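Trying the structure run again after the queue cleared.
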Amino acid sequence: MRTSGWMKRQPWFWPIKLFLKRISGKELWLRPEVKYDVLQSDSWKYIPSLLNEQSIVYSLGVGDLIDFDLDLISQVDMLKIDVEGAEYLILDGLREGDSLPKQLLVEYHHRFPGIGKQRTAESISKLRQLGYRIFAISETGREVCFVLDKD
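Done. Tokens:
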């Protein structure tokens, strides 16, 4: 057994690694802003009480045809975005006044060359202006889950 594999399976590993990345300046200091009961699928968390049998869940990932029509966004209840750096362009297309997804699950790629933490911070700030609040963050700090909280 490799030591690194053993360490990654320990309950203390990811919180300590994320903390060290945060104090070194490599990751953002993010915390959940609202509390909901959540379920988890892989590293993604979601709010099941905001979904029902008629809910539309759309997962946009690398390899998908990126001709996602932002006009369809009004019909989507939960949008998961993992597009290796293109999330910033997609999220920039969201506009106030539009019918927005209730939940956004976003994997940010600020660790990629040429992107940087500032771009992620600006994206999160814009989502907050649209009424989104963070309800969960993955152990790595890369996947950030938002809920539309206009109240």
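The mean pLDDT is 80. Worth checking whether this holds up in the mutant runs.
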